[in-house]
Amino acid sequence: MARRGAGTPSLLQLSLLLLLHLGGEWTLGCASVAVGSPIVPLGSAVTASCTIQRELCRGLEQGKVRISWMLDNRLVAGSQRQGPGGTEVSDLTLPRFNHTQARLWCCVEWNGTKQRVGMAEIRAGYPPAKPLNLSCVLNLADYGLTCQWEQGAESHLPTSVVLKCAGSRAQAVTGCTPRGGHSQCTVPRRLLQLYRQMEIWVSATNALGTAESEHLSIDPMDVAKLDPPTLQSIQSIPFQTDCIALAWDVARGTEHMELQCELRYRAPEDPAWALVTGILGRAGSARRCGFLFGTQYRFQMRCRRSSASPLASWSEWSPGRNYTTHEKAPTGKLDAWWGAQPAGPGGRLSVQLRWKAPRQREANGRVLGYRVTLSPRRRGRDPPTVCNTTHTQCNFSVPAGTGRVYVSAYNAAGESAPTEVILLERKGQPLAGLRAVPGGERSLWVHWEAPLAPVTSYVLEWQRVPAEPGHCSACWQVERDGAATTALIQDGIEPFQRYNISLYPLYEGSVGAPVHTAAYSRQKAPSHAPKLHLRRISKSEAELCWEPLPVEEQNGFITSYTIFWANSLADVASATVSPSLSSFVMRGLQPSTLYKVHIRASTAAGGTNGTSLTLVTTVLDDTEVQFLFLTLGLVFVLLTVLLICLQKNERVKKQLWPSVPDPANSSLGKWVPAAVPQEPLQVPAAREPGPAAISTVTVLEGEPGKQPGKEHPGPAAAPPALPRPYVRQEGPGEPVQYARVGGAGYRGQRLLPEPGPRLYENLRGRG
Q1: Which helix (H) or strand (E) segment is 9 a member of?
Q2: What are the beta bridge partners of residue 490?
Q3: Is the pTM of this model over 0.70?
Q4: Are residues 121 and 54 in the same domain?
Q5: Residue 592: which CATH number?
């Protein structure tokens, strides 16, 4: 048994390799899988069954057979039952099959693993879609009919597409089969019936059905695509210079056909081609009028059979040919506008005259220049010319009182009739109001209120701010409808640029005073924000200022400035400032606190933040600092005055600074006898105080004739004697210093009068 069990896996693996594919089913010798249909509509139900013959599967003869299903690599559940003849059958139903292609496996469990023993491949999709827009063209080189169409939606199934054709009395045949998934093929000449009606259609077939295109009923010759004709010559008709004549030839191989041709032409500035239809004939010429004078045109031509059906194909357009029509003198009047002012002493008037170049239809060719005169041109003589220029403006001076000038344009064929320009006085009634709104990124609509007086026309002026060369520094236009209240400006308008607009009403005999406005065709956030500067600061307030943004950096009308400030505690505050202001005072600040401030400039389209400014509030206000300094100054002044008063007042001075006698100048210093024995100075030992004992008494005798307390002048004093000590005897052998008289101390200080010493006898104290 062990030997048999060991050999069974190899036998089973070998048997799994011997799968047989029968239709949509894969079978093993002991298992078979059957499905209801191997191709089903996408999203429909799929049924399948797997039958296991136990006796044919080695290793499964005994024991219970467990059947399971796998859709590709995903496990799906089926129901198992006992089949006839001892077989095991598992049925499976998939309610919605949403795969375009998948493999359904039948598995059995053997030795703890699932083994695949049968398989069925299932595909799902849709019926073929109907082919659309079938068209065919006959190639005259080989007379093959090439047809093309648009394939419908993808069916996800193998689909066979063929082009079928049938004659009026013939059976339908397969004309051609497209290759490589293309949607076109060519029917050979042998299957075609020329000059007879044929039906042609496309058929698409797959396992779920068949779809056909609309049947096309044509004569193959009607859809023959001819080679384009050739334009031989183009020239103006001499007496009608707005008309031209074209000569053309047909392509080779089409000389015997009656053709229907079309001509198209355009000038370089025209937005589209102008088309001329109904040109019939085998070859020849054609005429066309209504061309502009002195204008270059490009011409092209194409043809097809005149008897062809509306489905017939046109030939390609012929190679283009250019032709410039003849010129003639310019026509029409020029739009003119002027400005005049006195030219200083001499009685002359300085005039700036501007005019619009004539349109192409009125220029009748290339304008060579313009001429300004003071009177119209008369037969036989030319008036004096004050300006001859190639530009559309001219500055000149005329005598005071000149009321009219005349301007005309000329080209190689002649000169236009002069346009009269009346130099009206600007004293008319102004308009009541003017406003401008965007008409697009490069246009502006201007609206105004009509005045009460009748107006003949209006003149609009606009100028870019700031003015730049080449960017419509002084553009203008005339509105000839006096009843109009709106006008569209398109010349030189660019987004994010400011334009100053002025409107002049023209009355009979005068020009009204202008009204002004400013506008943007489109706005955006400013390019930059102003830079903040600190003007002053205190402990609770700070005044900021900034320079207004230049107009070229505003990109729109500034609607507001917003100031933001925050301290170190992230307390944020803000304030909105009118755009007309350039300073702001922040109030309610904390003393001695650091703040960060920035400004935002805003337009209707957005805002831009500026750089941050850091500032620190003070501890005291300016008034408090001034009061403190004033107080200190007052205290200093009071102290100074007090000191001066004290210095002047002797009584107070003696109380505060008493007079101390100078011992050197005392009478005691002078009463010391000349022979006083020097005794050594000894410091007594520290002991308890006791009664003092007098050991010696010295009697000092005064000088004869000297009163006590009085000093008599005498000869210059000798150098002061050294101080002599006076001692008293405390006990036997213990001399103690009593006093020392300095001979040079406190000089210059006045001494108070002292009584002189009395005469005493020398007494010796008793023991």
Answers
A1: helix 2-16
A2: none
A3: no
A4: yes
A5: 2.60.40.10
